[in-house]
Amino acid sequence: MELKEAIRNRRSIGKVKQDPVDKALIEEILEAGTWAPNHCHTEPWRFWVMTGEGRGLLGKGYAEVAASEADPALTEEELAVLKGAQMKKAFRAPVVIAVAVTPSAQAVVPEIEEYAAAHAAVQNMLLTAHSLGLGAIWRTGAPTYHAKMREAFGLGAKEELVGFIYLGYPDMAPPPKAARTPFEQKTLWVSE
């Protein structure tokens, strides 16, 4: 697949089959992530590949976030139902890759650049998944950044999750191409 084609045609695929994904394909996706640009070669990313019951790690995070924010008036039974529903979110794909950023302690590297590198790693991974015929979606949202989710993944003081890549064989047609503002409308050429 041509690079420009992959960039233009990749879409978030939120519905995938539960068929297993070959480990070699997952490894190819992970390797693509490691080739993202990063200031001073800090390689600030970390990955967790969750399959099978291992997806329960993410499910536990979702459940604990929901429980910590739940109405205190909920009964034990209602809380258990809420946590169970949140736990299921982790099982929407046969593979979920959590991506975190571990900012460098080097003063020369601004923390924002470490986040940019981790986000670039995710983009490389999404494009690679697409080129391999897999469906993927980058999921984030408030639970991603919650202290309970950080705790579930055992993150250190400066570490943060940047999202979860849900991955599998597509079980839906790709959404239509979204309109994009022409670059000319967002570009200023400066030559002097």
UniProtKB/TrEMBL annotation:
Entry-linked InterPro entries: NAD(P)H_nitroreductase, Nitroreductase, Nitroreductase-like, YdjA-like
EC number: 1.-.-.-
Pfam families: Nitroreductase (PF00881)
Family statement: Belongs to the nitroreductase family.
Species this chain originates from: Paenibacillus violae
Keywords on record: Flavoprotein, FMN, NAD, NADP, Oxidoreductase
Domain of life where this protein originates: Bacteria
Cofactors that this protein relies on: FMN
Coiled coil regions in record: none
Sequence ranges assigned to domain Nitroreductase in this UniProt record: 7-169
The protein's name in its UniProt record: Putative NAD(P)H nitroreductase
